[in-house]
Amino acid sequence: MKRAFQLISSAMVAASMFLAGCAQGRKLPMTTLAPKSDLADWIYRLFIEVTLWDGLVLAIVIVAFLLAIFVFSTRVGEAAPPSSAASDLKLEVAWTVGPALILLMITIPTIRTIFRSQPNLPPAGALEIKVVAHQWWWEFQYGDKDHVITANEMHIPVGVPIRLTLQSGDVIHSFWVPQLGGKRDVVPGQLNELTFIAYVPGVYPGQCAEFCGESHANMRFRVFVDTPQQFAEWEKGQSTMPTAGAAMTDKAAARGAQVFSNSPCAACHRIDGVSKGYIGPDLSHFGSRTTMASAIEANTPANVADWIVNPGRVKPGAQMPKLGLSGTQLNDLVAYLENLK
User: pLDDT, tens digit, for every residue of 144-170?
Assistant: First the structure.
């Protein structure tokens, strides 16, 4: 039995690694089988452990089934020996105690993982980030509200404890970055928390995991796990005023700044030193982001223009209205936004 358990364990681990490799080979990083943080690793190990116990149960059932058919069954034409036994005490004890022990072996690591993943106090030196979920985009606030605010792209340093405070601006959402941690619901009127330490620098996609409306599937984001130097440079850049001076050296961007200020954009979107909008994503350093529209499209001038012209086509149900801009005005506004770095 011990040998069989070892074989099953080896097979399950090999299968998990194979599936993770296949996912990465197809460039589908939304997988929990390639953990890149302590939290994701705990969940992965729990998954493997529970799966191994499930495999053991399956093996016992299959063996019992085969024995019942080929060893203990009565053959055609054979007279069944009479039996006076009404019950088998050993068998009853076995099928009562056995499942109870297996449930215990599953329950203990599960409870341990739950408590490890929800510490009462933030770890020493943790980076505190406030995450606000909206229909259908994500807002990330670092430190005080006026310090660093960004949207749909969260930067964190590698090897540093991260403490996320999750809250909703409208309906129920769910924060999920498969390679960095488990799902955590974002509920209106309730603060939930998520703590983890990322081990490997890289870019990890995230997704809302709770149906929240028409563009639920388009409510994505990215987590950039930076080296300490990269994160320090990014934070310094985000803490300064957007490069309006550089933008003004471009005539199109200078005209675009006027288009922005004189349009509904300024009422909805915040840009440091320009507007105080609070409805849509913060655009202070929009040009430095790699994606747009909740990380569903690359941040390119063509995609930005397409979004401004018809947001509902890119993201059905988007609450941003059509601005009716075209031609030179549209191009100037795009140039201004792309210069905000």
Answer: 655 789 999 999 999 999 999 999 999
Q: Give 255-259 contacts, CB < 8 A, sequence gap 24+.
A: 255/328, 255/332, 255/336, 256/331, 256/332, 256/333, 256/334, 256/335, 256/336, 256/337, 257/336, 259/325, 259/329, 259/332, 259/333, 259/336
Confidence bin at 172 (pLDDT 50/70/90): very high
Q: How many structural domains comprise the chain?
A: 3
d(CA 194, CA 39): 9
* Cross-strand partners of 154: 223
Task: Identify the H or E element spanning 162.
Answer: strand 161-168
288 and 184 inside one domain: no
Task: Output the pLDDT for position 244.
Answer: 52
How buried is residue 192: exposed, middle or buried, by Cβ count under 10 Å (0-12/13-18/19+)?
middle
Q: Which helix (H) or strand (E) holds 151?
A: strand 148-151
- Cα–Cα distance for residue pair 153/148, rounded to 1 Å: 12
Cα–Cα dist 141/152, whole Å? 11
In-domain check, residue 84: no
- Distance from CA of residue 29 to its chain's centroid? 11
Token match 């540093």: residue? 160
Is the pLDDT at 54 greater than 80, yes or no? yes
208 shares a domain with 106? no
- pLDDT at residue 127 above 70? yes
CATH code (residue 193): 2.60.40.420
Structure confidence by residue, pLDDT tens digits, 308-339: 999 999 899 988 888 888 899 999 999 999 99
Q: Which of 35-44, 224-233, 246-255, 319-328 has the lowest average pLDDT?
A: 246-255
The whole domain housing 107 covers 2-68+93-117
CA distance 177 to 224: 11
C-alpha 71: how far from its chain's center? 51
Any bridge partners for residue 202, and if so which?
225
Helix (H, G, I), strand (E, B) or coil at 221: strand
